[in-house]
Amino acid sequence: MSTELKVALGFASSFFIIGFTAIVLVSRYAMMTV
User: Fold this and answer.
1) What does the angle CA 24 – CA 9 – CA 18 come to, to the nearest 5 degrees?
2) What is the pTM of this model?
3) Closest Cα to residue 8, out of 16, 18, 22?
4) Over the stretch 2-33, which tens digit does the pLDDT of each residue have?
């Protein structure tokens, strides 16, 4: 496995985790408000 691939994979996974957490928080907040 090349270093560039490892860096890209880590970047993509961290970005996915952050995006997923943001979506969950927003949907939970919307449910509480409604």
Assistant:
1) 20
2) 0.58
3) 16
4) 999 999 999 999 999 999 999 999 999 999 88
18/2 Cα distance (integer angstroms):
24
C-alpha dihedral over 6, 8, 11, 13, to 10 degrees?
-70
Domain that holds residue 2: 1-34
Residues 7 and 3: their CA atoms lie apart, in Å, by 6
Q: What is the token pair recorded at 11? A: 């970047």
Q: Could you give the CA distance from residue 27 to residue 24 in angstroms, rounded to a whole number?
A: 5
Q: How many domains does the chain have?
A: 1
More confident residue, 1 or 12: 12
